[in-house]
Amino acid sequence: MTFRGLEALRDAELVLCEDTRTSSRLLTHYGILARTAALHEHNEAARIPEILGRLRGGARIALISDAGTPLVSDPGYRLVRAAIAEGLPVHATPGANAATTALVLSGLPPHPFLFYGFPPPRQAARLAAFGALRAAERAGLSATLVFYEAPHRLAETLADMAEVFGARPGAVARELTKRFEEVVRDTLPGLATHFAAQAARGEITVVVGPAPDEAPEDFGALLEQAMQTHSLREAVALVAEATQTPRRAVYRRALEMRGKDVLF
Predict the structure, then answer these.
(1) Among 57, 19, 25, 21, which Cα is nearest to 41's?
(2) Residue 137 has pLDDT above 90, yes or no
(3) pTM of the shown model
C-alpha cells in the first residue's frame, strides 16, 4: 500500500469496494473511517448514474478492489468509462499488480508481453482461446503471455497450455506481495504435473514464455521450390505468408539452405 493510496482513501467521502468485508480490514488497519459501498460486476451498471451524480456535485470517491489493481480483471471499467465520457476527473494511484509482478519474477522476457486475463472456464472454449493465440504466434506474434487463473482450475489449465503451447518455459506465481508469496518455474508440462499433484491456493498468475521460431513440416520443401523461381527475398515473403510463419524464421532457413551465415 502506497502513501499516495492511503492519502486518497483518507480524503474520500465514499470508498467503492469490490467486497466491503474485505476492504474493511484494510481500512481498519490504517484507521480510515470513510463510508464504504459495494461496487462489483453485478451492480456496477446500476450504480453508475448515482455515482456520476455525486461526482458532478464535487464528491471525492475512491474505488478499490479486493486485490491488485481495479479494472484489471476487476470491476470499475464501466464506471471509469462513464466518468471520462462526462468529462469528470479520474485519477489512478499506482499500487500492487499481479500481472507485472509475476512478469518480473518469472525470469522470462519482460517485453513485449501480452496480458490476457482469465482464460475461459470451460475446456473447449479455453482450448479455442489458446489456439487463437497460437495462430497469432504463427502469424508473427512474439510475446510473453500473462494469465490469471482460479486455483481450482489451475492444473487443468496448465495441462491445456502444455497441449497447445508445448514444452516452453513458464512460471506460476501465487499470493504475490502477500505473506505466502510463491513462484514455481518449470516447463508447461512440468508445471501441469506439479500442480496436478499439489493443489494451489490463493490468487494465481501464470506466465508463459514467447513462442520460439518455428516452421511447419513442409516448410523446407516449400522454400526450396520458391527459391528456384524467385529471388531469396521474394521466396521468403511468399513462404512466410503461405505458412503463417514469422519472416525471420523463414529468412534464417533460406540462408542456411544457401549455405550462408545468418546475420541479424
Answers:
(1) 19
(2) no
(3) 0.78
